[in-house]
Specification:
single chain, about 140 residues, mainly alpha, elongated
Length: about 140
């Protein structure tokens, strides 16, 4: 169910940030502002409706800019992770993971921070693979017992 909801939200975000959606919204605003119903309103109601229309259109513009910015940041981060020899390539395209999977990865990073503090070597570089390998070794040793 969680994956279905995340797919739905991703699809909605893409639709809201699409240029065609903005053009449809702009057309609706133009049709409303050119209707006689709009012109027959009180002056204050007209101002309120104009502000509402601008806010409505701004939402689509902001979503488009956010989608582009988010994609750029993800691509840059993927390049940095992929190009660093000690980094885990598990982090490339991490934005496709569910919230549960991201929470699990965040817990692994907390474990990594605890290891750095407990060994008094906070400047050592490790990747998440260090924690995952340690957990796998612990599981294997427990299974042998």
């Amino acid at each position: 169910m969680e994956k279905s909801f995340e797919k739905l939200t991703e699809a909605i975000i893409k639709v809201y940030g699409n240029s065609v959606t903005f053009i449809i919204a702009l057309t609706l605003v133009i049709v409303y502002l050119s209707s006689t119903r709009f012109y027959k309103q009180d002056f204050h109601d007209c101002i309120r409706d104009i502000i509402l229309c601008i806010t409505f259109l701004s939402f689509f513009i902001i979503q488009k800019v956010f989608n582009k910015y988010s994609t750029v940041v993800h691509l840059k981060m993927n390049e940095l992770v992929a190009s660093h020899d000690k980094a885990s390539n598990r982090m490339v395209n991490i934005e496709g993971k569910t919230e549960k999977e991201l929470d699990e990865l965040a817990k692994h990073y907390s474990d990594l921070a605890q290891i750095a503090v407990s060994t008094d070597n906070i400047h050592a570089t490790h990747s998440i693979e260090h924690i995952l390998n340690a957990q796998q070794e612990n599981n294997e040793s427990e299974n042998k017992i």
